[in-house]
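# nightly structure sweep
# worker-07 picked up a monomer target from the shared queue
# config: single-sequence mode, recycle default, output format = C-alpha cells
# input follows
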Amino acid sequence: MAYSETNPMAEDFGFDIGGPLAAYWIALLRVITGWWFFHAGVTKLIEDGLSFTYGTMYMQGMTGTALGPIPVWMGNNLGWLIAPGVPLFETLIGLALIAGAFVRLAAFGGVIFMTLFWVGNAGFGNGLVNGDLMGLLLFATMMVFAAGRYYGLDALIERLDVVKAYPKLRYLLG
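# output follows
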C-alpha cells in the first residue's frame, strides 16, 4: 500500500480490508453498535417490561410517510407483537452484535428497525442524512463485512460440523 503526497489520486493506493487495523476497526464498530441497541432494549425492558406501548403509538403516527399506510396498519393490528418485540429484539440484536454471533441475521434485524425509524421520522428536518440513516449504514456495514468473523463468535461457529454440513448457514453468520 503506497500513498503519493504529490499525487493523492495515485492509483497505487489501496485499503487492505484483511489487515489487522481494519479487523480491529470492524470489531470495534460491531461492539459499539451492539451496545447501542442492547442499551436501548434493556432500558425499555427495565422501564416497561414486555409492554412497550410507545412502539405501537409510534407506528400509528407514521401517516404520510413513504411507507404509506403499512406502519399505521401494523400499529393498529400488531400491537400484541410490537409491544414485547421492540425491547426484546433490540436487546437480542445488541447481544448478538456484542458477542459477534449470528451477526448478519442480527444486523438484518437492525436494518429493519433503522429503516422504520428513518422513514418514520420522515419530516427530515435535518435532511435525508440523519442519525437514523447512519444507524442503518452501521448495520449494513456489519452485514457487508461479515463483522462477526472479526474477533467474534461467528468465526468459531463457522467451524462447527453443522455449518460445514449446511454451508448456507454462513449467510446468517459473519
